[in-house]
Specification:
Blueprint: E1 23-25, E2 31-35, E3 45-46, E4 53-54, E5 59-62, E6 71-72, E7 77-86, E8 92-100, H1 123-132, H2 145-148, E9 159-163, H3 173-180, H4 182-196, E10 201-206, H5 210-219, E11 226-231, H6 240-248, E12 263-267, H7 268-280, E13 286-292, E14 300-305, H8 310-316, E15 324-329, E16 336-337, E17 351-356, H9 357-360, H10 373-377, H11 384-392, H12 396-401, H13 412-416, H14 423-441
Parallel strand pairs: 1-14, 9-10, 9-12, 10-11, 13-17
Antiparallel strand pairs: 2-8, 3-5, 4-7, 5-6, 7-8, 13-14, 15-16, 15-17
Amino acid sequence: MLKTFPKGGIHPPENKITSSKGIKRMAVPKVVNVPIAQHIGIPAEIIVDRKEKVEIGQVIAKSGGFVSSNIHSPVAGTVTKLDLIIDSSGYKKQCIVIRTDAKDPSNFEEIEEPLKIDIELEPKEILQRIADAGIVGLGGATFPSQVKLNVREGTTLDYLIINGVECEPYLTADHRLMLEKAEEIVVGIKILMKALHLKKAVIGIENNKKDAITLFKKVINKGDGIQVAALQVKYPQGGEKQLVRAILGREVPKNGLPLDVGVIVHNVGTIFAIYQAIQFNKPLIERVVTVTGKKLENPSNFWVKIGTPIKDLIAEVGGLPEGTRKLVNGGPMMGKAIKNTDVPVTKGTSGILVIAEEEASRGEAKNCIRCGECVYVCPMGLEPHLLMNLSEKGMYEKARAEDIMTCIECGSCSYVCPSHRPLLDYIRFGKNIVKKLENSKN
C-alpha cells in the first residue's frame, strides 16, 4: 500500500504538461539582476562595486550572518549598477546588476561534467564547501543549507529524507531533474550521508512519477543504505512535516523541526546542487525552472542562470498568449503573482506559471456557511475559518494562541471553500503581523 500523511490534504488537477519535456539550456542573458536576499535570513553583504569586472562563480555578496548565504555571479561581465529592483515579492530589493561580456568564452561554454562517484572531502570540508557555494533549499523555502546541516552535538539523527515529491500542480522541474540526473543525485545523497555520519536515506517520490521511481531503484545499489518510497499522490505531501509522517510515521512537533525526530529533509534540486559543489567546486548560479501554462505555445523546463529576467523565459516559450491574466512565481497553490516580467529568477524560482483569464478569476467571496471543509483538509489540523476571522478583525494575539504560525500556507483551505473566502490571504497577513509583534517583543 502506498504511504501518505494521514491528516487533511487535497487532490487538485495535476496539469503536469511539461513532464515529458527535457531540460533545455537557456541562452545567457545580456544583463542579470542578482538579488542579495535569495534566502531566508539576513541578506548577503555586497562586496563588489560599480564598473568592477566579475568572473563566473565569483562571490559578489558574502553571507551576512549565521542564517544567510553567499551570492555568486552567474556570468562573466561588468557590474553596472547596485540598484533597487522589484523582485517576485512585488517590493523593491537590493540587486547587483551585471552586464554580460559577450566576448568572454566562459559565458558560452556548455560543459557536461562526467559522473564523479568518489567523494574525496571529509565531513567538515563538505559542510564548509556547501556554505561557500551559497546553497539553499531549492524546494521553495530557500533556507541556507549549511544551517540546516549544522547539527548540534548530542542530537540523535538517523535518517536523511530526499524530497522528490513535487506535489505542486504544473511544476515538473524536480521530476525532470530526477530523470536526467539520477546518478548524480544518488552521489549527492551519499555526500550528505558521509557529512552527517548517516547510514540510512529515503527518497520520497509520488506515484505519478513512476518513471523516476523505477529509475532510482535501478541506479541505487543494495549496500548504499538508500531506499525509494513510492507515495500516494496527495497535496501538500512535499511539506517537510507531511513527508516525514508519510515515510517514517514520525510526528514532527507543532513548533518543531524534522531534526526533533531524528530526520533531515532536503529537496532533490538541493541534493544535485550539493553534488556539483562538492565534486566540481561549482557554486549555485543556475537552477531548473518550469515555464508552463495551458495556453503557452511551447511550455518547457530550462536550466536558467540566476538573475535572468522572467521576460527571457516567456519569450523562449513563444511569448504571452492572448488573454493572459496572471503570471505566478511557483505553482498555483503556493506561488505568488509577479508584478512584471522584469522580475529576475532567483534560487527559489521553481517555476513560472502563465494563467489565462478563465483560470485566474476568483468567485465572489460570500459568508462562511460553517461547512467545515477548510478544517477537514488542513494538513496541520488548524481551523482556517477561525484564523481568517481573527486576522480580519485584528485579533492577532488570539490568532497566535490559535497557532496561526503553524500554518504552512499550502492553500488547501482556500481551494475547497465553497464560499470562495480568501482564507489564505488573511492568514498570511495575520502571520506577518504576529511575526512582527513577536520580533518587537524580542
